[in-house]
Amino acid sequence: MFMFISKRFLQLIPVFLGATLLVYFLVFATPGDPIAALSGGKPMAPAVEEALRAQYNLDQPFWIQYGLYLKSLVTFDLGQTFSGQEVSDVLGRAFPVTARLAIMALAFEAVFGVIFGVIAGMRKGKLFDSTVLVASLIVIAVPTFVLGFVLQFFVGVKLDWAKPTVGVGAPWGDLILPAAVLGLVSLAYVIRLTRTSIIENKNADYVRTATAKGLSRRRVVSVHILRNSLIPVVTFLGADLGSLMGGAIVTEGIFNVPGVGNLLFKAIKAGETPTVVAVVGVLVLIFVLANLVVDLLYAWLDPRIRYV
Amino acid sequence: MTEQTKERGLNPADNQQPLLEIKNLAITFDTPDGPVNAVRNAHLTVMPGETVAIVGESGSGKSTTALSAIGLLPGNGRVSGGQIIFDGEDITHASEKRIIELRGNSIGMVPQDPMSNLNPVWKIGFQVKETLKANGLAGNNSKERVAQVLADAGLPDAKRRANQYPHEFSGGMRQRALIAIGLACSPRLLIADEPTSALDVTVQQQILDHLDTMTTELGTAVLLITHDLGLAAERAEKVVVMYKGQVVESGPALEILRNPQHPYTQRLVASAPSLASKRLQSKPLEVAEDLNAVVKPEHPRNTDNVLEIKDLTKVFKIRKGLGRSEDFTAVDNVSFSVKRGTTTAIVGESGSGKSTVAQMVLNLLKPTAGSIAFDGAQMNNLSEKELFTFRRRVQPIFQDPYGSLDPMFSIYRTIEEPLRIHGIGDAKSRQARVKELLSQVSLPSATMHRFPNELSGGQRQRIAIARALALQPEVIICDEAVSALDVLVQAQILKLLNELQENLGLTYLFITHDLAVVREIADDVCVMQNGRIVEQSTTDEVFNNPKSDYTRNLLAAIPGSTLLI
Q: Which has the closest alpha carbon to B558: B204, B294, B212?
């Protein structure tokens, strides 16, 4: 087990290098001149432009630029944004907000997804099951920005159950509605995955044996069926954490959340390489770590899986 | 049928109340195509402490009948008529609460397949403990109690074993754990649903002996469900024969065996290989008639050896973690030869290395040492092209007809695929060949438009045989090719294989754990134990005059072998 975990941590190094290199190159190759964007398209004195290019290493060839970036990275210097802020500061403000949002969304979809999925699976073909199936299909089919605006208007404005937008500092309470919107589509997938998995397992021989022992129905479901049904669900949730962290651009836009999605979107538009690479680098780390956690959860859920 | 039951002796209820009484039971399954009556008019009585066996083939309703007594019918099944009376109480439509009360401490169950009936994600001890807990028997010192229950079921080193997961147990040990669970709360009735059909014969015998001892000590009545008439006769006082959802005959075990009345029972007695193999010795004439299916072909056989195996050895490396590994010799210095046009059987229990030998002969696995010669040519270093030709001449048939046919392929595509791969004929001639093959395995040619899930196990195995025959091979390796089939179907398939051998001059290498089957199909036998051949000779010699202790044990363990019929 120790060997397995250390191996996975060592694998982080090439993954991180590869991902940053790729992103660095993509931003480098994007058409458009970052300096021109910085000046807002107005003419600029050649000397000033020269100085700016030198400051951001934009006058160097690609490999030197990337090498210089890595060099400063070793000293924990993530570089500066075009507006002169430290990238690490910008990240430090945006990440906690997105992390809160993503964790709330993940908890929302995991808890409700598994509960609804289990009930639907155990009552396959009954009214509850059919209702949940149709509802989840609708949620999957409707684009997030439509769902977001509709819920913002009805739940946030008309009914006034939750705050329609997120205030300064993005406290937990303000994030309830955006987290629900963000987790809604994944919730539909978790319900369907759990349901299928439960249906597959509920007719297993060991479930019948457990029933024959004289166990209550509740215990048969929660102890014998559920644990065997969670592996596909855990896989999905682990992969989903990554996309919740990085892919919340639409939701963050609707609810005015000052998170990573917004930051990344603006940085890409401006061609602000240090910010883009730093954000993506952190996301890659989160993705890889989430997958490691999933793998460890596998072994905990199913003792037949052992890592060497 | 009730009249018949009374008529045929067994008048138990003098002044004792039956423990379980099933009267006129009807069970219906609601399917998308309408209701299906799985069981009709079933009668059955179990007295306290008595062992009653229900015998029948798969689909006869024997498990369904027994499981209805503890409310374990699958979701779409329901009792649609009759009565189930347990200890004087009518439990036909008892509430779920009452049934849960009865389960475990009044009626226990030992299920069929030890591989799938323990929950893979919980420790054995946990699964025993929750049984005790659910029935209020865990007490203060549940750990001790769990170990005791497991030890009673004959599990060695029970305390340590309780801390292990099912996948760390062998099949026999798992079945002991399941017996421990079934008997943990000392139920008055134990439903044993084919408790040993998934196990090797010698393990089967140990487990059944132990089960006998335990239920006798506890005074538990047993409802034994089995497809094996020999086993039923050996273990039960009373036998109930079911066929197509109905009880066709019931009475004292030996009487049914010696003097079957119903035509189905008569067929069952005739084709049960475990019984037939003994009958071969006692009543040779009668048997020759019964088994005309499996008498050896008349025409003289070539004497050349199509397969010569010399000093074959296979060593597997077993990983021990941290890069260490240990050698495990699965096949150890095995030599034998197979004459053209004959059948050689390799017999042994699971883990004896017999299937590993088959895989090496099929060239699916590389031997560690030794040589295999096919038709005089060494097969050590075949080029890809030579291997392709070899594959055409040697074909396999595997055990599980449910797993060995691609469910997404139509029957036509399944049988035609080898022809296409080997570039034989054009579309039209291939279609004609598929039709011909289907008729060779006695299936209508319309079968080719169907899919495996629409066919029965026996039909699927016929398809597997047709697929193997497609390339007109000389040798067919049958790896437990009839083990997954019911007795009657098994007899039909053996008959078919024998006819094909006669007509096409095929050579069979028959891998099996079932000595009774060997008796019916093989000319020569190799008995394997722990990777070595412990005995090899002609079939008659091995059966009539076994040399090694191991072979004698195997022979003695055939259920019903001690019964004098």
A: B204
Spatial contact of B42 and B68, defined as CB atoms under 8 Å apart: no
Could you read off the pLDDT of B67-101 as tens digits, one per residue? 999 988 887 888 999 999 999 999 998 898 999 99
Name every chain A residue with its beta carbon within 8 A of the beta carbon of B130.
Answer: 210, 213, 215, 219, 223
- Locate B386 and state its tokens: 């030579």
ipTM above 0.90, yes or no: no
- With CB atoms and an 8 Å threshold, state whether A205 touches B116: yes
Q: What is the pTM of this model?
A: 0.75
- Using 50, 70 and 90 to split pLDDT, how confident is the model at B7? very low
Q: Does A303 touch chain B (CB under 8 A)?
A: yes
Q: Taking a C-beta distance cutoff of 8 angstroms, is the pair B40, B246 a contact? A: yes
Q: What is the dihedral of CA B246, B251, B253, B254, to 10 degrees?
A: -120
CB within 8 Å: B72 and A303 = no
State the pLDDT at residue B84.
94
Chain B interface disruption, residue of A7, A206, A228, most B CBs within 10 A = A206
Enumerate residues 222 to 281 of chain A having a beta carbon within 8 A of any beta carbon in chain B: 223-224, 227-228
What is the tens place of the pLDDT at every residue in B329-341?
889 999 999 998 8
What pairing do the DSSP bridges indicate for beta strands B475-479 and B394-397? parallel
* Buried-state track A93-103, b at ≥16 Cβ within 10 A, e below 16: ebbebbebbbb
B482 in A contact zone (CB under 8 Å): no
B181 contacts A209? CB cut-off 8 A? yes
Phi first, then psi, for residue B191 (nearest 5°) are -95, 110
| Residue whose C-alpha is closest to residue B443's, from B429, B427, B461 | B461
Give the amino acid at A21.
Answer: L
B500: Cα separation from own chain's centroid: 24
Per-residue model confidence as pLDDT tens digits over B232-281: 888 899 999 999 889 999 999 888 888 889 998 888 887 766 544 433 33
Residue A247 has what pLDDT?
64
B72 closest CA partner among B31, B109, B127: B109
* Closest to B343 (Cα-Cα) out of B470, B482, B511: B511
Who among A206, A207, A213 is closest to B103 (CB)? A213
Q: How many CB pairs under 8 A join A and B?
A: 88
Q: Is the CB of residue B32 less than 8 Å away from at least one CB of chain A?
A: no
Q: How many helices (H) and strands (E) does chain A have?
A: 14, 0
- The alpha-carbon gap from A213 to the nearest alpha carbon of chain B, in Å, equals 5
Q: Which pLDDT tens digit goes with each residue over A140-177? A: 888 888 888 888 888 877 887 777 777 777 778 788 88
Question: Looking at CA atoms only, how far is residue A209 from chain B in angstroms?
Answer: 6
Cβ separation of B101 and A206 shorter than 8 Å? no
- pLDDT tens digits for range B25-81: 999 988 887 888 889 989 999 999 999 999 988 778 888 899 999 988 887 888 999
